[in-house]
Specification:
The complex is a heterodimer of chains A (810) and B (106). Chain A has 30 helices and 33 strands. Chain A is of the alpha/beta class and 810 residues long. Classes of the chains: A alpha/beta (810), B alpha+beta (106).
Chain lengths: 810, 106
């Protein structure tokens, strides 16, 4: 039987040097090939081996999506160690609780959110593991019956349920999905939106694209602006997501269209040309489509997709394939395909799966169906009967065999991050409070807002009820508000069950007025400062409302989430009023960027630059000779690195260029102090600046202010495969001895996460020291040191100190 | 010239932020969170540091590490190097207090 491990090995063999994963960080964009990822996963296997974590042992993965997440999943598939992924939105307490339940050997987590456990390993320190075990090769044989993972889908902290999935469950489902997709996604780029703890993302968003040699992009920022940017820059062709994502991007487009006064045109166009041939639609809507460039496919699951949203995208010329499945079925049961696509349905049954309707309930059978909940026979027996899995969903087939979901036996709300939330779990918590008679939890705005509607029993109500309820819930279950139901009882069926839909529609109707009058900034401030929104006035000082430093950070985090902007909280001072804050948020949307790299750094200048450099070399060689030591240390560098060197003479840059091989010089930039070389208003500054750019490829680097911009420029250079030369002393030494490094070098090295090549020049001070304009003749020695790589848990100061000592000792 | 800054934190106020990764990423560097027990102390040190400087800067422009005796070391992450900085933290029951002295270049 073909298992996940085989699929991984097959992909590595077939696509080895192709880019598999892309990590879009704040400043750096990093690519990882299939081969590289395989080596990383083997490194983890080596760690397992060394630490007696054997086949069948469990590890918890409690992380946001990213490269390390994938390498951990691969390592589990290859070694037979069981993965226990836990949604990063759930509390650390929940993660450590699950760790205890499954007796996890290690908990892989982030320093930014970690459970109290002696078994944790920080993902920020995984580099050390990859490096230490890079030669390791696991020899484990994995069979279909071996467990691959245990997925904790939902449940309150008191009764978590773990779905046990075997290797055969996943590989069977990958096989079925491949039948649906055929080869149509070969060479695609996918953008990952949903958490990898979610089966839908794991199988449809990762393992299936992987088996087609696709590229998957992970972004560190979830802001819609960053997502749109990634869609464009990475030429994304497919996105696996939940309905909410499609509707929020649709809203974003409509907002932009409205701003440009073109919303009417857009709607008319969609109405008139929405059904014309796709090439015509592509042409007509090319301006909107330009924003997404090559996007052509949405795979959607998890909840019902609004048919209007589906139509919008279809008319724009983007395929929307809706599917259906559950974690227990790993996950796909039905899916629409390019050939058979019927809006409003979840498609046809995929191959290898059997589906029947029993009293309207969808029940399924197949190799993909799980074998039970972890150590929970009772719950297992409730849903697994005679080999059939009872989904709890109600549906019907149409005459062509398309399945339509019409309801659910279990009530479920799909959160914006794709997590299943069961309202009953939350209601149980709310009903535990003495002042509550009964309650209903409802997801408004397609699950974006969770609202608890309570029926009071007359006892005095705690004004902190919301806070107290939330403290007993998982983060993903947090309620946004608690509303008191004004009538004597909830609407109920004849069997006394609450009619949830009627409560919801009653609420939406009443909510409509409330929303319109409620100012979003006021409600944020009132939430953070814990005062009523009605008491806030535009001309109030934030300080007077009670905004201290802790609350200021919280407010700025919430502003970023709510208004989808980058917001720097140090802009809020003691003199900031509510109205000022409003303006700050508005301005923040239009940040002006002034890069230190410009026209004269363009690639087109390379031939001229190389010629001018050669002329410089020949002329300078008349005056001084250069001896090189340690040139072999440059071997094996991939082009992306930072050179640091001591600075004692105007000739330093030229001297380093003289010893560098041509292939590195072509892509080398030189960081030049903005306040020295690019002083505004200085007479020779402009000419000197252009000269530096053309001959040495220098760019303006800000030493203190605008550090963010400098980091961006560094990132841009390194992302494009270039390298940078920088003098960490910041200025030429007056004595010829090494002076103290500016602290910024640590910050740079840490953020750029590349190898640092230390270079020491000896003798140049005697040839042309600071303050002299004519050089004397002589001999110079250039020593090239071994490249150094730093880890994410080293402090900037440590890095600066290590680099200083290195150069000093050379 | 010497400048001083002091800050006090009611520990329980920090509870709601301890797992809020977006909050923590705004204030702390990854190397500052290896030991969760130091979180509040580092926050108080940074706040006291800003008070000593007399201006608001980005939380992550300051980095706090510890020497082998457990004494905090404060540094600015870029820009001018300060002549000397010294800081100290103390915990008792509900509260954490930090005190910072900066010696400025003349």
């Amino acid at each position: 039987m073909v298992v996940l491990a085989d699929l991984i090995k097959l992909s590595v063999e077939k696509y080895g040097d192709k880019v598999f994963l892309v990590d879009r960080g704040i400043y750096r964009r990093k690519e990882f090939t299939y081969n590289q990822l395989y080596a990383m996963a083997q490194g983890i296997c080596g760690f397992f081996d060394k630490n007696d974590i054997a086949k069948g042992d469990k590890i918890v993965i409690y992380l946001p999506n990213g490269i390390d997440y994938v390498s951990l999943l691969w390592a589990c598939a290859l070694s037979g160690v069981v993965a226990v992924p836990i949604d990063f939105n759930s509390s650390a307490e929940f993660a450590s609780k699950i760790g205890k339940i499954v007796d996890a050997k290690r908990i892989f987590c982030s320093v930014f959110k970690s459970p109290d456990s002696g078994k944790k390993i920080f993902v920020e320190e995984l580099d050390k593991i990859y490096d230490k075990f890079k030669e390791f090769k696991t020899k484990k044989r994995i069979k279909g019956e071996d467990i691959f993972e245990i997925v904790y889908t939902s449940g309150t902290t008191s009764e978590p349920k773990g779905v046990v999935l075997k290797n055969k469950n996943l590989s069977a489902n990958i096989h079925s999905a491949k039948e649906v997709i055929k080869n149509s996604v070969e060479g695609f780029s996918f953008l990952s939106i949903l958490p990898l703890s979610h089966l839908f993302e794991q199988n449809v968003g990762l393992f299936i694209p992987m088996s087609f040699g696709a590229k998957i992009v992970y972004t560190s920022s979830k802001k819609s602006s960053s997502i749109l940017e990634a869609l464009n820059e990475e030429r994304i062709r497919g996105v696996v997501s939940v309905p909410l994502f499609l509707s929020s991007i649709k809203e974003k487009i409509e907002k932009i269209a409205k701003k440009e006064g073109k919303l009417g045109d857009l709607n008319n166009g969609l109405k008139r040309f929405g059904n014309s041939p796709w090439f015509l639609r592509r042409f007509i809507f090319r301006k909107i489509r330009k924003k997404f460039r090559e996007l052509e496919l949405f795979v959607v699951g998890g909840a019902a997709l609004d048919i209007e949203v589906e139509e919008f995208w279809r008319r724009l010329g983007i395929y929307v394939l809706q599917g259906y499945g559950l974690s227990e079925t790993a996950p796909l049961l039905t899916c629409n395909s390019y050939e058979y696509n019927k809006p409003g349905t979840v498609g046809k049954v995929v191959s290898g799966v059997e589906i029947k309707l029993e009293n309207g309930e969808i029940i399924a059978k197949g190799e993909n169906v799980f074998s039970g909940y972890y150590n929970d026979k009772m719950e297992t027996n409730k849903v697994l009967k005679n080999g059939w899995f009872y989904t709890g969903d109600i549906g019907e087939f149409d005459s062509q065999g398309f399945l339509k979901i019409t309801g659910r036996i279990k009530n479920m709300i799909l959160s914006s991050s794709g997590l299943n939330i069961y309202p009953e779990d939350i209601e149980k918590v709310i009903n535990g409070f003495p002042e509550v008679k009964d309650s209903v939890v409802i997801g408004l705005d397609s699950g974006k807002k969770l609202v608890g509607v309570i029926l009071p029993n007359g006892k005095a109500r705690d004004k902190d009820l919301l806070k107290k309820v939330n403290s007993k819930l998982n983060q993903s279950q947090y309620l946004n508000s608690i509303i008191v139901w004004k009538e004597r009882d909830f609407p109920r069926t004849s069997t006394k069950k609450i009619k949830r839909r009627d409560v919801e529609s009653g609420l939406v109707f009443k909510n409509a007025d409330r929303e319109a009058s409620e100012d979003s900034l006021f409600s944020l401030i009132s939430e953070v400062c814990d005062i009523s929104g009605r008491k806030i006035k535009e001309n109030y000082l934030l300080r007077d409302i009670g905004l201290d430093s802790l609350k200021r950070i919280e407010l700025s985090v919430k502003i970023e989430e709510k208004f989808d902007v980058n917001f720097n909280e140090d802009e809020i001072t003691d003199k900031t009023k509510v109205s000022d804050l409003r303006n700050l948020i508005k301005q923040n949307k239009e940040v002006k960027e002034e890069s230190g790299i410009n026209f004269f750094n363009k690639k087109g200048f390379v031939p001229l630059r190389m010629f001018l450099q050669w002329v410089n070399f020949v002329l300078s060689n008349v005056i001084y000779k250069v001896d090189i030591k340690g040139k072999e240390n440059l071997n094996g560098l991939d082009g992306q690195f930072i050179i640091i060197a001591n600075h004692s003479s105007m000739l330093d840059t030229l001297t380093i260029l003289r010893v560098l091989p041509l292939r590195y010089r072509i892509n080398l930039y030189v960081a030049a102090a903005k306040d020295f070389f690019y002083r505004p208003g200085s007479k020779y500054g402009r000419i000197l600046g252009i000269f530096g750019r053309v001959v040495y490829n220098s760019f303006a680097f800000s030493r203190d202010k605008e550090i963010q911009q400098s980091l961006k420029d560094f990132g841009r250079i390194i992302n494009s495969g270039g390298s940078v030369l920088i003098f960490p002393e910041g200025t030429r030494s007056i004595t010829g001895k090494l002076s103290k490094f500016k602290p910024g070098i640590g910050l740079l090295a840490w953020n750029m996460d590349v190898q640092i090549v230390p270079i020491k020049m000896k003798g140049l001070y005697d040839i042309l020291p600071k303050g002299r304009s004519l050089p004397s003749r002589g001999r110079v020695e250039v020593v090239i040191g071994k490249p150094i790589k730093f880890s994410k848990t080293q402090s900037f100061q440590d890095i600066t100190d290590i680099l200083y000592k290195k150069i000093e000792g050379m | 010239m010497f400048k001083t800054g002091v800050d006090i934190v009611l520990n329980s106020r920090f509870d709601k932020y301890k797992e809020d990764s977006s909050f923590l990423e705004k204030v702390f560097h990854s190397f500052e969170l290896k030991d969760k027990g130091k979180m509040i102390g580092i926050f108080a040190l940074k706040e006291a540091f800003m008070k000593a400087l007399g201006k608001k800067i980005n939380w992550k422009d300051i980095e706090v590490t510890y020497d082998s005796f457990g004494k905090p070391i404060l540094n600015l992450s870029y820009g001018k190097k300060l002549k000397r900085v010294d800081g100290s933290v103390s915990h008792d029951g509900e509260y954490t207090i930090a005190f910072v002295v900066i010696e400025m270049e003349e």
